[in-house]
Design a protein that fits this description.
Elements (H helix, E strand, L loop, with lengths): L1 H27 L2 H4 L5 E3 H4 L6 H14 L10 H8 E3 L6 H11 L17 H9 L5 H15 L5
Parallel strand pairs: 1-2
């Protein structure tokens, strides 16, 4: 059935690419520069952003040489990302989680479950965070502390 195949493709790569395009557009269009206090939770382990960090920086540097942007961002895209964006931990692949962790640090990752989609679940999501080998404090931050801080909820 065509609809079932489409839903599978969206689960496989569609959501990840869509969220990446949305968050990076906010950065490149200067929204995070104009609203420096905004906090964004980026689903799907930050999409493909953790893997494109150097490419983002290279494009930012090239934009100055070739005058490609309508607006000059005073900071690099990864600086905006690290200050304002919190990837969720939704990944079933430990090396990918470690890549994201290395990019943003434990204070900028929030627990993700992919609920209500059928490909993720709470127990699995918590187990993957625990398998990162972090300190108890860092694990607690990812499992709820960071989200509480973003939402200004006392734990």
């Amino acid at each position: 059935d065509i609809m079932e195949r489409h839903k599978l493709r969206m689960s496989l790569y569609g959501f990840t690419l869509d969220t990446t395009i949305a968050v990076m557009s906010l950065i490149w269009q200067g929204v995070l520069e104009r609203y420096p206090g905004i906090k964004i939770i980026h689903a799907h382990l930050g999409g493909v952003v953790p893997y494109l960090v150097q490419r983002m920086e290279d494009c930012w540097n090239a934009s100055f040489r070739f005058n490609d942007l309508d607006q000059r961002l005073p900071k690099t895209p990864s600086e905006y990302y690290k200050e304002n964006v919190y990837p969720d931990s939704m990944s079933a692949y430990l090396p990918a989680m470690k890549c994201c962790l290395e990019f943003v640090g434990a204070t900028h990752i929030c627990l993700g479950t992919d609920y209500p989609h059928s490909i993720g679940n709470w127990e699995q999501a918590i187990e993957y965070v625990k398998r990162l080998g972090l300190s108890e404090k860092e694990t607690d931050e990812i499992l709820g502390g960071n989200a509480a801080k973003i939402c200004k909820i006392d734990k």
